[in-house]
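User: Structure please.
Assistant: Input sequence and predicted structure:
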Amino acid sequence: MDRNLQILGLAKKAGLLAIGNEAVAAAVRKYQTKLIISAEDASERVYRNSRIYADACGAICMVVPFTKAELGYITGRGAPAIVAFLDTGLAVAFIKGLAESGHELSGKVWQFLEYSADAREGKGKKPPPGADDPPDDRGQTGKRR
C-alpha cells in the first residue's frame, strides 16, 4: 500500500480527518483544517469548493493522485471526493510523501512545509499568507452568568 494512503488511514483512526464535503465544510467553519485534498477524478464543482474552503480558513488545497475509490477504501466512507487533514504534522507527512513519490507541488505548498518546519524548530518566522491561526473565542467558557 502507498505510504500516503497509510497516513490517511492513520489520520482517520486518530480522528484527525474530515471526510466528505459536509464534514470538510464543518471543519472549515471551525478553522480546524490544515490541508484539503481532492481526488483526481473529482468533479469541477468539488475542485471549486475545495479552493473556496481553503481560502476561507487559510488552509492548503491540492489535488492528489488518488481516485475517489482509493480514498473511500482507506477511509471506509464510500467514495469521498474531498478530504481534509485537521493536524499539521500529518498534513506535512502526507505532503512530503507526495513529493518523494514524484508528485509536483505548488509554491504555496512548499511555503506551508517551510513554515511548519520552522515552527517546530522555534525559529519564529512569520507565517505565510493565509496560514494565520483561527480567531480566539474571547475567553468564553460556555457558562451563562
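The radius of gyration is 15 Å.
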